[in-house]
Amino acid sequence: MKICILGKYPPIEGGVSASTYWLAYGLAERGHQVSVITNADEVEEAYRMRLSAGDEPLYAPVFPASGGSVTVFNTERPGPRMTHIPAHNPFATKLAGLATQVIRSRGCDALFAYYYEPYAVAAYLASSWTGVPWVVRNAGSDLDRLMAVPELGTAYKEILRAADGVLTRSSGLANRFLGMGVRGERLFQTAGYSPPAAFFHPGAPPLDVNELPKTLAPELPDGGPKAFDPAQPTIGIYGKVGITKGSFDLLHALSSLRQEGLRFQFLALTQGQGFPELARAIRDLGLDDRTWALPFLPNWRVPSFIRACTAVCFLERDFPIKIHSPVVASEVFATGGCLILSGEIARKHATGEALVDGETILLVEDPKDHAELAGKLRRVIEDPAEADRIGRRGVALAGDPGAFGRFVESYEQILARVAGGEPEARTFAAGEGDDAGELLRRMPWLTALLPTEASELAESFQKTLGPADTGDPVDAGLAFCELLRHRLQTNHLPGDKDLVEACLRFQVHRWQAQRDSEETRRQMPFAASDGLRGGRVSSPAAGALRPLRSRHAEVVELGYDVVPLFNGGDAQGVEKRPTIVCFLRAANLRRTELKLTPAVRELLELCDGSRTTDQTIETLAERRQLPPAGLPEHRKQVLAALQQLYDHRIVIFAAQPAAEEAQPPAKRA
To answer: Taking the model in full, what pTM does it have?
Structure first.
């Protein structure tokens, strides 16, 4: 096949560009002609890889034995002839135009876009202009961060519904895509990325650090120490800098070990917007005499970096994007490196119980506990041989050498199918996952309340009423809830009738918040734009702005606190007390449910855009007849509640009063 790929590609650093690169490499190795359309040459310096002349054969590899190859096409950088007002770099337009040129000139059969902005936008345009079928895959930040912005979410959902294929590994994400209106037969299940064993293996040659440029200058004199000693214990990190990456936790732990007199080296293959702050911390903590900071290197040189380290740290914690699934751990395992891993990432990793502290990894449950982290680092520094043994045992967690081939093959099959072929390609087809067992898995409260009747009810429903042709598991779930409500009203269900009714109401609202409908698509979530633009809620920043609640938020009061039942709890823990829950139909359909106190519900009711934040605080104070002495604490509490509502996108802060909602157009017969 002739395949066109739009996405991040070296010299852009990042997990997305890594898997895009290796996918292009693997497809070409299997004999396909791959054209990569990218804006990588325009990446900002903070995230630019450093490619050398010797990297050219792997940058655009050619495989004479199979006849496959990778050809890279970069967009033109902005210049005087691209200027316009307001100024911006027209990435999506340039990528769409370049992809169209390549498709027409090279006769491409299928188009793959990885990451929504700007690549899926450009692929959608190029496909509509050329008629070439296309598929799209999300990362983490586009689906759970960018798509949460209502206007972006609307655009991306239109694009997803128009795609010939939407790719995902997760049934949970598949359900979200179904809720957005993507048809089940267009949802394809891919194999997970696994590092290519030809590059990531324990025999990879260690990096010659002394031959590489250092990037800490001028923050550190001459960029750091003069000579790297391969025989000295070396702690390494690679990837982007950040607080949630554990970068600064690591520095504090290393500083305490330095004060103990331990000898070690710190090797950082890292850049990013936070890099200057990292460099200052290295200097302030007295680590500049043992730190080598290297620029981002190409994906195919990462194995050599890992082999140059006694242990590699991957300490991501409190990461805001929950579906984020980085590949660092898998790469370190495959290369035989000793991995010092955070508890947050350990819980995400597919190997699960095989991650044994002191056997296959060194586990740091919370990197913010610098003493715990320092203790694991001390083991590596004092006994490098133990670190080597841990790394060699960890190789078994990398999976078998054929995993990379299955990863590439799954994409090959999907692209062949949308291009008109008939090979096997696994889809989340209509009706999949809607059997009785799946229904009960998604409704744990039913088994908890009716342990003997739940299975019979679900099986009976599937045999008689299950709408298997809808392709939407929410449809099946809602229909099942209607059956349960009917049986409840006709006294054909045992147990506490009021408790079951509360659970049914919660379940129905949860599922309704996880789907778009024609009605909700006609209704803007906010009739204004967010003036706070992601900042913190404070009097200086938000006092003159107007808190405005989402029209897609629904507040429900229940007679029982059933939330624990929906999180795997048992019936014994349910309390009979008024419970207020706000369900939000988020732009990206990420499940958003928030328990409210009566005071916060009252606050939310006032968030109609008619008054400023300061006026809202004053209104609540007047209602409570607060004395002047209580106003500072009252303001603090209201701002904290607004911050929570803002974090969940239940409210925004508008600069102007909200616009009137237009009436939807009349339906045509």
So the answer is: 0.86
